[in-house]
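Per reviewer request, we include the raw input and output of the structure prediction for the construct analysed in the revised manuscript.
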Amino acid sequence: MQSSQQEARSVRKDTSAALDIKGSVFTLTVLHLKNPGLDAMQEDLRRHLAQAPRFFQHAPVVIDIKAVRDGALDFSGLARMLRANDLVPVGVRHATPEQQEAAAAAGLAVMQGGSKPEPLSSEKAAPRTEAPAKTVHEIPVSEPVPHAAATATRIVRQPVRSGQQIYAKGGDLILLAPVNAGAEVLADGNIHVYAPLRGRALAGVSGDVNARIFVQSLEAELVAVAGHYRIFEQQPAVDVYGKPVQVYLDGERLTITALF
């Protein structure tokens, strides 16, 4: 009898789940290739990384090869170059079937999805406040839509700690406590922060170009709307830093203006 009980416990232990697989939302930087040459890529990459070195350190990167689909790419060499610059290559998108096979052989994932908004140039995306923000890059989102359906509102009353991520799927996100540095808040709709925003806030992550971010005190590391985002390596301009602001897209220009 004792032997049977021990065998039963052993079976239960051996069949217990060792892991779970769940979906989540992450911020990914997209690297758009325009020249298949590794030397040219290296030079431009170092120039871009120099603008915000701490932000991009160990950042996951998706490689968009739409502009070089007709050329041969050294995916293994490209992955090594990115890792040598403290980036983490995750996968490729807009690849041909042959390129997908080559990317998979180099240990890269094949990212699926439709077209994404093009990144803004630093001149085109300059906010009206003249904030000393860095280069605007692209965050993967779905195709922009005029009015994304907002069906739910999520309210968070506790402070969002460093390393924590809060996501409001299908609606707005309302935060009644600070968002600390290193934290990230995302919403398919608008984001309202009735406290200091010191981390990252990304509104309209499903493509709503009309989404906005409302902040009681702007001290952010990053703000984004519908895939267009702006990094603050230094504090924003004095006329908006620590003050109530709204962030929105004016056409294709990311705009930051004071609320009062």
